[in-house]
Structures are given as structure tokens and as C-alpha cells.
TrEMBL record:
Pfam families: HTH_1 (PF00126), LysR_substrate (PF03466). Keywords: DNA-binding, Transcription, Transcription regulation. This is Transcriptional regulator, LysR family. GO terms for molecular function: DNA-binding transcription factor activity; sequence-specific DNA binding. The lineage of its organism: Bacteria, Pseudomonadati, Pseudomonadota, Betaproteobacteria, Burkholderiales. Belongs to the LysR transcriptional regulatory family. Residues 5-62 form the HTH lysR-type domain. One of its GO terms (biological process) is positive regulation of gene expression.
Length: 296
């Protein structure tokens, strides 16, 4: 009769899947090989599934075991994250700041803001993670961040989101590009050019596509990529023209020609905070440093 599995059984199963043998699993868990074998046998009975068979004298996981291991791993990642946070609290107390941001901001304004923040709170443990907006939103909802900043909207009724700064996208190209002598570039200048674009769910991409349709502009060809930084690198190589946010463009300014782009494509930096708790003093200070960078 199947029954709920115990934590010790699941832990022994995970160790065997990780190491490949009951002996190595026992060493990993600081126990004995017979104890691991007994827990595996109990787990198979409790689960009502065959999880291993013997092949040439070695345990071999079944398809069911591999699928179960995938689920188990997801839960243990959460447990390991808890332990990591506990270690941070033991070492630094409540003096932690967990920041999430999109890669473009992680290459531009966030490092500068963090550099200026640290002298006010020396010894603070910082976690800075660069992720896509969807993962940032999920991480904030699950308590993994104190704040997140993105160049995309972060919509959720459980979060407090606001626009920190609004500006305009710019056009980037190699300094020797034929259009580099223009004071600004109009969308009509993209006609027949090799265009470097972001993915189709990006705000700048959507605005650019709408503008090109309105002006009946057809690029010669396109290279689509996930990151604004990749567009800047390609433009610096002379591959083509790209339209990106000005923050990441400024990071590559030494190897690019950067021009205003018309009609304007709006760029917003969105700040999101957990809706269920007030921001800490450290969080507030970091937001102030972000605002200074954005208005510099």
C-alpha cells in the first residue's frame, strides 16, 4: 500500500541518484551503506514504484526514478536556498540586500549605484542577480529579492511597481558606418540596412516594429538576439545598426557611434518592491543611488 515518503528516504534516494552507488551515497550523508540500502527499499515499497534494478552488479535507476529525481531536485534547491540565506543571516545579521535586475541594467547603472551604496553600509552582504523580467517578477513574488529593476513592465497586484526614470532609445553603429555622420537617425534611414533587433516581446522591439510599419520601412535583413549588450557588440564589429536603451549603449560608448533615434522609442526603468512589506533602510538607500545614476 503506497504511503507518504519520509524525508530520510527522499534524501537517501537523491544521494544515490547523485553519486551512482549506495556506498558513495552513504559517504555523502555520513551514514552506512546498509542504512542507505534499507531506506531505498522502504522508499520503493512506500512509493509503490520500482525505482532501481541491478545491472552488472550496479544499481540502475528506472525512468520513474529519473522523473522523480527531477522533482526532488527542485525542492532541494529551495532547501539549499534557505540554508544559504541562513548562513548570510548568521554571518551578517539582517544586513543583506538582494537585488534583481535585467542584464542591460546589470551592465550599466546598477554596478555604479552599488559602488556608491557600499560605503554607507560596509559589511553588507549583497546578492546581485541578472535575469529576464519574468524571472525577476517570480523571484520577487517568492521572496528572493528585496527589489528588482527592469526596462520592461513588471505587472502584478502583489507588487509595488513604479517608473524610476523615462528616456528614449538610441541608435548604435560602428563609428565608420555610412550613417555615422548624421546628427540623428530617422526610422526611414533603416530602409535596406542590416538591422540588429531584440526579441519580439521586448518593448523597444515592439515600438520599432510599429514605427517601421507606419513608415513602410523594410530592413535588408535582421539579426535577432536576446540582449541589448549583444546588439552593441555586433554594432561595434560593423555588423549592422541597432536600437537599444541608452544605459547599455553608454557602456560600449568607446567602440560605438551613438545617435538619437526618431520617432522616439520610449524607454522606462521600472522599480518593483514586495507588496507585503516595507522596504528596509538599505533598500531605500540603494534606490536613491539608482535615481542619482539615472539622472546623472
Amino acid at each position: 500500500m503506497p504511503r507518504p515518503l519520509s524525508f530520510k528516504e527522499i534524501e537517501a534516494f537523491r544521494a544515490v541518484m547523485q553519486t551512482g552507488t549506495t556506498t558513495a551515497a552513504a559517504q555523502l550523508l555520513h551514514t552506512t551503506q546498509p542504512s542507505i540500502s534499507r531506506l531505498l527499499a522502504q522508499m520503493q515499497t512506500g512509493a509503490g514504484l520500482k525505482l532501481f534494478d541491478m545491472h552488472k552488479g550496479r544499481l540502475r535507476p528506472t525512468a520513474e526514478a529519473r522523473e522523480l529525481f527531477s522533482t526532488v531536485q527542485q525542492h532541494f534547491v529551495g532547501l539549499e536556498r534557505i540554508e544559504h540565506d541562513l548562513q548570510g543571516l548568521r554571518q551578517f545579521g539582517a544586513g543583506t540586500l538582494r537585488i534583481g535586475c535585467t542584464p542591460a541594467l546589470g551592465l550599466s547603472i546598477v554596478p555604479a549605484a552599488l559602488h556608491n551604496f557600499l560605503p554607507y553600509y560596509p559589511g553588507t552582504h549583497i546578492s546581485l542577480q541578472t535575469l529576464g523580467t519574468t524571472h525577476l517578477r517570480e523571484g520577487l513574488l517568492h521572496g528572493q529579492f528585496d527589489l528588482v529593476v527592469s526596462t520592461m513592465a513588471i505587472g502584478s497586484p502583489e507588487l509595488n511597481a513604479s517608473v524610476l526614470h523615462q528616456t528614449r532609445a538610441v541608435c548604435v553603429m560602428h563609428p565608420d558606418h555610412p550613417l555615422a555622420q548624421r546628427s540623428s537617425l530617422h526610422v526611414k534611414d533603416l530602409e535596406g540596412q542590416l538591422l540588429l533587433t531584440l526579441n519580439s516581446d521586448d518593448n523597444i522591439y515592439l515600438q520599432l516594429q510599429r514605427t517601421m510599419l507606419e513608415h513602410d520601412v523594410r530592413p535588408g535583413s535582421t539579426v535577432e538576439t536576446t540582449y541589448s549588450s549583444t546588439i552593441c557588440c555586433l554594432a561595434a564589429q560593423g555588423t549592422g545598426l541597432g536600437v537599444v536603451n541608452p544605459y547599455v549603449a553608454a557602456t560600449f560608448a568607446s567602440s560605438l557611434c551613438i545617435k538619437p533615434f526618431l520617432p522616439e522609442c520610449s524607454v522606462e526603468v521600472v522599480l518593483a518592491l514586495p507588496g507585503h512589506s516595507a522596504p528596509s533602510e538599505r533598500t531605500q538607500r540603494f534606490i536613491e543611488e539608482l535615481q542619482k545614476q539615472l539622472t546623472a
